[in-house]
């Protein structure tokens, strides 16, 4: 009898975390948020978090299913959260053309962003918002946009940037008509670059005056801040606008990949052992690093506690429901009624697996709760 094809071995970031965290902590000082993330990733879907056992009375099948950590940085906990978010956003999304605009923080500001991430990330998001809203005034209209902060490249290096999905037009200020934008581009990219640079310079100066960067080594020199400002004032900032999407549904599917994406998923791991980790980067390219370097890069992308990486502005803001419905009526679109689907049904839609049925005989499963194997640590 011929054996079937061998399944490729699956590697797990949690295993790298458990095996090499102590070595990482001996080399790198972790923040409380970074420690919490590593703890949650290591415990996710293990007995440490408790769970339940699915039992089949018909054939005796048993299978333990452990609880998820639900940490927004965990690569295992994003699929269902993403689907739930998309379903909820469907009620707000207008079925019009959208553009994808990317605002990137210059390399010269990355060290400052690592020192004061909350301040710099918030400034970048605010400035991206204001650039879009300022340029939409040229249409004499209110646009809708969702912005998402990412901090990584495909090789997990630090690279803060903001993705913005923006309506290709807006509701006129007098709310009497829908004002479509240009079909090929949203706003002039070269002009957006200059405005973003000016707004960020003003934000950074205000933060510096409020002592948000006290303790940053480069600014111990009294001329350090002004030297940095002069440098970033003369370089070209990167703003990129991608072609539009024709329908709101395509936008949602695309946007969902960005809102709940983490730096790397288990599916990109190609090999891991005690000496090295190899993962896919872009296309067929790969990167091989030590396990400790892999974890060091991973924790670069842990956001400050309570920081909101997703922002909605204009017609997509929570407070703009009335204007959004006016725009929907002008566009001849019906209101979207969203029905929240139970997580098991969402799982079935994603995977085709019915978790309520025995995979061996098809009879209905009985779930029996399992207590935590041990209490979670008081301090991460």
Question: Key terms for this structure?
Answer:
single chain, 380 residues, alpha+beta, Replication Protein E1, Chain: A, 2 domains, 5-stranded antiparallel β-sheet, 3-stranded antiparallel β-sheet, 19% strand, disordered N terminus, disordered C terminus
Short description:
Helices cover 35% and strands 19% of the residues.
How would you characterize the overall build of this protein?
The protein is an alpha+beta fold and 380 residues long. Mean pLDDT is 90; it is low at 1-7 and 375-380. The chain has two domains: 13-72 and 343-370, no CATH class; 79-263 and 301-330, 3-Layer(aba) Sandwich (Replication Protein E1, Chain: A), CATH 3.40.1310. The strands form four sheets. Strands 9-3-6-5-13 form a five-stranded antiparallel β-sheet, sandwiched between helices. A three-stranded antiparallel β-sheet has the order 2-1-14, with no helix packed on it. It has helices at residues 13-27, 32-43, 79-89, 110-115, 117-136, 189-209, 224-232, 248-259, 291-299, 321-330, 343-351, and strands at residues 51-55, 62-66, 98-104, 141-142, 144-152, 158-167, 169-172, 178-180, 239-245, 269-272, 277-280, 286-289, 310-314, 366-370. The longest helix is centred in the middle third of the chain and has 21 residues, at 189-209.
